[in-house]
Each structure stands twice: as structure tokens, then as C-alpha cells.
Design a protein that fits this description.
single chain, mainly alpha, 140 residues, 68% helix, 6436_t:CDS:1
Length: 140
């Protein structure tokens, strides 16, 4: 409230901040970072720092994702629609089935997927969605 940002603006900011984790992991593929002691998750210390960084974002990320989602749900329909949210927020599992595959390639996938989530989020008109949800609830 102090910064006068909407829930959506905070969520977009958190998503972009979270995208820095896989972006940092991707640095290991660039020639400049190959000979450096850090950059691209080469040490356990880097992993711990990124884990703390991501962990500090994750709770806020989930809270704001639910807050934005809640603004778009018709009154009285919360149980029905939050069930959908509960399913979809746990589908982001990535597995590599090849034994000799470099797990680092997953960072490119994760980075792309996180950034791809920003584009639809930017076009969501939350105030209009709230009005539409209220109109839907009034019809029932």
C-alpha cells in the first residue's frame, strides 16, 4: 500500500524477480562465465544463496497470485474456482528422463516459462475482471 501498487503489479514484479534464478543458472553456458569461480551455479554456496533468495520470494509470489486470482472470482464461487487454482499451481514439474542429459538445460526452459507467464498476466484487466465476476454473481 505504501508504494500504491496493485496486486497484479506486485505479482508481475515477483515473477520477474523469480526469473533471475534460472537466468543465473543459464550463465554457466556462456563462455565468459565458464572460467569464473561463480556464475551459473557452480558451487554449493551459490545454490544456498539462490535458494534463500527464491524462498524469500516464493511465499509472497503465492500470496499475490492467489490475491489476483481472488479478485477475478465471482462471489459465492470461491470453493469451485479455488479448486482449479489448487490443481494448476502444482503442475509445474519438470523431469528429464535421459541419464546423460545436462540438467542445466532445464534453466533455459524454466526461464522461458516464467517469462511466458508474464505476457498473459500483463494483458489481464483485473478491474474489468472484477466487474465481470460481480455481474456473473448477480445473475445467479
Amino acid at each position: 500500500h505504501h508504494l500504491q501498487l496493485s496486486n497484479k503489479a506486485v505479482l508481475v514484479t515477483l515473477v520477474l524477480l523469480a526469473s533471475l534464478v534460472p537466468a543465473y543458472g543459464c550463465l554457466g553456458f556462456f563462455k565468459f562465465f565458464k572460467d569464473k569461480p561463480v556464475g551459473g551455479l557452480k558451487t554449493a554456496e551459490e545454490l544456498y544463496v539462490l535458494a534463500v533468495y527464491f524462498g524469500s520470494l516464493y511465499g509472497a509470489f503465492q500470496a499475490y497470485a492467489r490475491a489476483v486470482f481472488a479478485e477475478l472470482i465471482p462471489m459465492g464461487e470461491e470453493a469451485r474456482w479455488y479448486g482449479l487454482f489448487s490443481i494448476t499451481d502444482k503442475v509445474g514439474a519438470l523431469s528429464l528422463s535421459m541419464q546423460h542429459c545436462n540438467i542445466r538445460y532445464a534453466f533455459f526452459f524454466l526461464f522461458g516459462m516464467i517469462l511466458a507467464a508474464v505476457l498473459p498476466l500483463l494483458v489481464v484487466n483485473v478491474p474489468q475482471g472484477r466487474r465481470d465476476a460481480d455481474a456473473y454473481a448477480a445473475q445467479r
